[in-house]
Amino acid sequence: MLGMPVSHSLSPAMHNAAFAHLGINAQYQLFQKQPQDLDVFFAQLADLRIEGLNVTIPYKEKVLHYVTLDRTADSHLQEVGAINTIVRRGQALAGFNTDISGFTKDLQEKSIEVKARSIAMLGAGGAAKAVIYALARLNAGDITIFDIDAGKINDISVLIKRLFPGFKLRAAGSVEELNIPHKDLLINATPVGMKAGDACLVKKEYMHKGLVVYDLIYNPRETVLLRTAAGAGARAYNGLGMLLHQGADSFEYFTGRPAPVEIMKEALENAIARLTH
Ligand code: NAP
Predict the structure, then answer these.
(1) Distance from the CA of 43 to the center of ligand 1, in angstroms?
(2) The overall pTM is greater than 0.85
(3) Whose CA is nearest to atom 43 of ligand 1?
(4) What atom of ligand 1 comes closest to residue 238's alpha carbon?
(5) Under DSSP, is residue 258 helix (H, G, I), strand (E, B) or coil?
(6) Tens digit of pLDDT for each residue in 176-212?
(7) Which residues contact 257 (CB under 8 A, 6 or more apart)?
């Protein structure tokens, strides 16, 4: 995995367990690189015997110009402008985005219906972009977004309106304006909730029994937002499933073999348990 920082990553545990399970002689390693070192790193990929690579913050957009996008799974990858998976194919590098497919698969696995549903979104950063694109592609009814940086909401709006003309995407100026009591789904794509003592961004009285709350955070497994949502009778899910499925999809691109999803899930859960004890 390429990123900065990368030391916190749970991906080595998940991928190395899968390699071991299938008897594949490969190792998943972390590469923390400064922006000015990327040219040299990509020039050396073959020498380093790197066949595949995940990319995380802050490089998901920057690495685009090193790859040819593989649009078999996603015809809008160029417009979305972010990838998290690279596979070496001879002299060329193919780029994919498994955040989008991973989130989509997790929704399906959890039977979270989004078609024609009204959705509130906290955060408009990199992960939100993949999630909102996936939701628009699944014919969500409408999405309202709040982020402390209004410029980021604007960037996503421009993208979505270009790709899905007529799609109802609105900016909220505050959490109150998200109108959560009338929403079907609330998604947190901010980092708020990762640190102990983080405040809950949404008041308990806004949550309701018909609401599904999906927090992209997976460590801790239950954020204050999820605890509050569950306390109000809402269905609450963390981001572990998205992490797992993006990893499984990347693994299939890396190896050309079906991912042992249960093995990867167990490895992820063990890695999180080790972090929290
Ligand atoms: P990011 O690019 O930094 O985006 C987060 C956005 O939230 C930023 O625009 C940030 O604004 C905004 N924000 C911060 N505090 C806020 C607040 N109190 N109210 C409203 N907006 C606020 O980060 P990211 O890469 O999208 O990741 C977001 C979260 O998703 C992280 O917790 C990450 O771990 C998680 N994630 C999970 C998965 C998964 O597979 N489950 C995948 C990717 C990411 P500023 O930049 O102005 O602070």
Answers:
(1) 31
(2) yes
(3) 127
(4) 41
(5) coil
(6) 999 999 999 999 999 999 999 999 999 999 999 999 9
(7) 22, 24, 251
